[in-house]
């Protein structure tokens, strides 16, 4: 394998690891927000937190698609 190919492979692997960590962090934040929703003082606050988590989960799906794409380049 050429040096350039090896560098590209490492770059893709690094990017995958970074995105996997981002998914873990995002899911941890979503869990914390779920817990906060139980103690929200108003319906409006709960709805805001719910919307925030919906956006987070959408981001997780996008990260997963991007990881699949990166893996296809290995």
From TrEMBL:
Q: Which Pfam families match?
A: Tlp (PF19824)
Q: Which residues form a coiled coil?
A: 9-43
Keywords of this entry: Coiled coil
According to UniProt, the name of this protein is Small, acid-soluble spore protein Tlp
User: What is the originating organism of this protein?
Assistant: Bacillus lumedeiriae
